[in-house]
Amino acid sequence: MKDQKILKVCKIDSIAFASFALKQKADFFGVHVIYKKDIGKRFQLVQDIKAQNGKVIIVTYINDLVTLQEVIALYQPAGIQFHYPFNAELVQTIKQTNPKLSLFGVLSDEESSPNFAQMDQLLDWVVYDTNYRGGTGEASAYKHLKNIPPSLLSKTLLAGGINPKRVRELAKVGTAGFDVQSLFRSGNLLNFRSLENLVDVLKFPRTRSFSVSLTDIPLTQMKNIGRYFVDPNLDYHLDYSDTSLYPNFDTTKCGIEEKERFLSQLPHSIHFFLNSNEKLREQIADFYKKYSLSLTHVFLQFFPEIDCSLFTSQRKHGYEEKFNDSVLKVIPSVFYKDLDLFFERFIECDFISIVVPPPEKKQNIESFIEVYKRHEDKFKDKEVWLDRNLNIEFVKMFQQRLGRDFNYIIGKEVISDWTKLPAIHEQISKA
What we know:
Elements: E1 6-9, H1 15-23, E2 28-32, H2 43-51, E3 56-60, H3 65-75, E4 79-82, H4 88-97, E5 102-108, H5 116-122, E6 125-129, H6 150-153, E7 156-158, H7 164-170, E8 177-180, E9 185-186, E10 189-190, H8 192-202, E11 210-213, E12 235-241, H9 256-262, E13 268-273, H10 277-290, E14 295-301, E15 329-335, H11 339-344, E16 351-355, H12 362-374, E17 383-387, H13 392-402, E18 407-410, H14 412-415, H15 421-429
Parallel strand pairs: 1-2, 1-8, 2-3, 3-4, 4-5, 5-6, 6-7, 7-8, 11-12, 11-18, 12-13, 13-14, 14-15, 15-16, 16-17, 17-18
Antiparallel strand pairs: 9-10
Helix pairs in contact: 13-15
């Protein structure tokens, strides 16, 4: 999808989930202050999101002017969403007294004859939802959609049962984007993986992101992951290797599964280095069951006999049954020397990770750059991650010589000194 759509993530009530949405480049962050009794409950959360330049939209049922002004004065949000039938007089008053505030109205199929002209004149955005309750997960029929004038349609966000499949179906109706709530919630828990999968459709590909590998960190230092909200890394990463694929690479003594338990409330990925398709299936199923909400994706290290049907990274090639809001995304990781073989098998993928040679292996680096350039056309329109032994200078070299927006998995450089994170982020973010 070439035209990236607006994404409003609604009912933000977790600092970790807010941080993940920020790093996934969500555009608006809906925070619920539904009733008067809720005023103040989310104040610190809103302040923290704003501190990270997130655009907070207060979503409310409150419909009296005095209380609304109190909410606006307290939170000083980027916008406010009147989650009830359009009240032109109230909206106009708020607009006059708060000219810099973005105003979100709600349209529902429950409305028999909406006044599109007034909505277009007074509102900055319209959320087209199934009903005025919100968060039900019920799919809207959007019966008014064909009658919405183009100027209003271009600032309309579709809500109501939104998932990756519906996003694809609705991509060309001319709306600005989507407002999503129930997709990201499993009971009282938040689903990082569902947000990851939706962003794969809405804002593909990710570029200039990075993940911190915790494979080699001592368990006593796992406390550093508590910095997640203020640190710029997208997620965390772990390697699972039993030496069956690479005899000199053994993580069995690194406490990987215990680290997974530490990460049960944070977005993370697992990278399997195993030479058995049966073992891969077992491990994917096991980790998916244990970490069904926080495990966002899996990397499988490529080897000649790997069963390519294990990969579910196809985003746009008709694999709807394999890629939806609940599936665990499985991505090929390829050792740079195996890229020729990988592409000989014509493995269709939209996401790929490449294990690069270490910085001190100058000749191997030249070999990698040569093989990458030979296959450069095959990386077009893909999300590409570089993995292994990365540091700031190595990142800079790749940026200069290969000139594309890679993503990076960085381990020892960070866990040896967490204060390096801002500098790493700054280098990765450079054009």
